[in-house]
Amino acid sequence: MDTGEALGIRLAARDETAMSDIYAAYGPSVLAYLRRYVGPNEAEDVLQRTLLDAWRFAGRYDPEKRFSAWLFTIAHRRAIDCLRTRRFKVVDIETVYDLVGEDGRDEADRRANTATVRTAMAKLTPMEREALHLAYFEGLTHVEISERLETPLGTIKSRVLRAQHRMAALVRESEFFEVEVQPVSAA
């Protein structure tokens, strides 16, 4: 039995010490996941709501399923709830012109660069693509990626580095732009 599933069973049995163990084991990775959706200012509040819901709905945990998937599903739902409560300000047209430029060339360049990166990402192996996605789009460290994928840390470091080199070479082949690849922190 996986440690996560054991924690889930303890939680379902209303073992109060399970919550602190869950927080220690999953808190950092759930927090990083939430930052991606709600930003750093609200992520900790959403994490607390996630853990509260995990406690309240502990009886719904199915030991046949992965505990981490159950917990991340709750976190995802709480993030969506948080986003639904936001009210966005209306931006005047002058501000938009300042950002994009009157003729839209800046936006066209950004879209071209995005297309180049997407094309290069599609040429990576699925494992390389997943490692880069977790590192750059979800903001996870090598250690967090290793824990999430249940893969040795050294393998993750190699996979991310190999993917960075392949991406840099693929993007350099493009005529649109050059990119400087910055390594992901290992901590």
Please provide a written account of the structure.
This protein has 187 residues and is an all-alpha fold. The chain has 2 domains: 3-84, RNA polymerase sigma factor, region 2, helix turn helix motif (Rna Polymerase Sigma Factor, Chain: A), CATH 1.10.1740.10; 103-173, Arc Repressor Mutant, subunit A, CATH 1.10.10. The protein has helices at 3-12, 16-38, 40-56, 67-84, 93-100, 105-122, 126-137, 142-149, 153-173. α2 (16-38) runs antiparallel to α3, α7 (126-137) crosses α9 (153-173) and α8 (142-149) packs across α9.
Could you give a quick summary of the protein structure above?
With 187 residues, the protein is an all-alpha fold. It has nine helices and no strands. It folds into two domains: 3-84, Orthogonal Bundle (Rna Polymerase Sigma Factor, Chain: A), CATH 1.10.1740.10; 103-173, Orthogonal Bundle (Arc Repressor Mutant, subunit A), CATH 1.10.10.
